[in-house]
Specification:
This protein is α/β, with parallel strands linked by helices and 302 residues long. Helix content is 35%, strand content 15%.
């Protein structure tokens, strides 16, 4: 049973998502054990205690999970070599999951990705039971899918696989508000404007993760009513419908450059969020707000 002031472990607490999750947990009166690799990098918030080290280190994993109610895992070295992604995510994440199980932790909330789903041209709307991409689809989807499978094998936990698409939100390490726009400025700005741009704002994503970790979303025997107790339940989380015309158009307009529109076959479906909404979640950040935040972050500062 989760206490009124739950103790939640967050790995990657200094990242874009990890920081937002810590903030959302504190807002819910949780005590947060923030696991980071560099001292002094955890969010400075009341209720947050920094733990420095590698979450895949068995001793550290045992120490931080003792007496905890939930563990949130957010780390995946996207963009690193396949070897590094496999070592950190596929091999490393189950270490802290097993430690959590052995410590009697109630829930494990893992940040997976909607990138594991087949969203090729001709595929319609995608829900949790959508077809997954086959092995060999790329280092990132391959290792993310393998991490999910490895966590499912741990057993003895109520595990939730949270599957977001592109994560919007300001920050120096933000892929979609900072890094991708920089690549577009430097020349990578080709896209079919009709292609679906599936996204969610980091604050909305963090809100769902925090509600799951603190037990605000009750378990159920039906995954469409809540996470299955003792099982592994995926949940898709996404914001308003959008296209690449919305996203790339905003970036190129802010940079004062011209997009290169193409007309190849693309996915035009939507990520369905019926399950997340049935669990009590709803996005608060609109597409207009997200694009305005993106634009303001790219405009030259006075």
């Amino acid at each position: 049973m989760v206490t009124s002031s739950p103790v939640v472990v967050v790995t990657g607490a200094n990242g874009l998502v990890g920081t937002a999750v810590c903030r959302a947990l504190v807002e819910r009166s949780a005590q947060v054990r923030a696991v980071v690799r560099r001292a002094g990098s955890a969010p400075v918030l009341d209720g947050v205690t920094e733990s420095v080290g590698d979450f895949a280190d068995e001793q550290l994993a045992r120490e931080v999970t003792q007496g905890a109610d939930a563990v949130v895992t957010t780390v995946h070295p996207m963009g690193s070599s396949r070897e590094v992604q496999h070592r950190v995510a596929v091999e490393g994440t189950p270490v802290i999951a097993r430690a959590a199980r052995d410590a009697g932790v109630v829930r494990l909330v893992h940040m997976s990705t909607a990138g594991v789903y087949d969203r090729s041209a001709g595929v319609g709307d995608v829900a949790e039971d959508g077809a997954l991409l086959p092995e060999g689809s790329g280092d990132y989807p391959d290792t993310k899918r393998a991490t999910d499978a490895a966590l499912e094998q741990v057993g003895g936990l109520t595990t939730v696989l949270v599957r977001p698409p592109a994560i919007m939100g300001s920050g120096d390490t933000s892929v979609w508000n900072t890094l991708r726009p920089q690549a577009m400025r430097d020349g990578d700005r080709r896209a079919n404007p009709a292609k679906t741009f599936a996204w969610v704002h980091v604050d909305d994503l963090a809100a769902l993760i925090a509600d799951l970790a603190t037990g605000a979303v009750a378990t159920a025997d039906d995954p469409d009513r809540g996470p299955v107790a003792g099982g592994s339940t995926p949940v898709v989380v996404a914001g308003d419908p959008a296209t690449w015309h919305d996203y790339l158009g905003t970036v190129t307009d802010a940079w004062g450059i011209t997009p290169e529109w193409t007309d190849e076959p693309v996915w035009t479906g939507q990520l369905l969020t019926d399950r997340a909404r049935a669990w009590g979640w709803a996005p608060r950040v609109s597409l207009e707000q997200a694009m305005d935040e993106l634009r303001r972050g790219l405009l030259p500062r006075a």
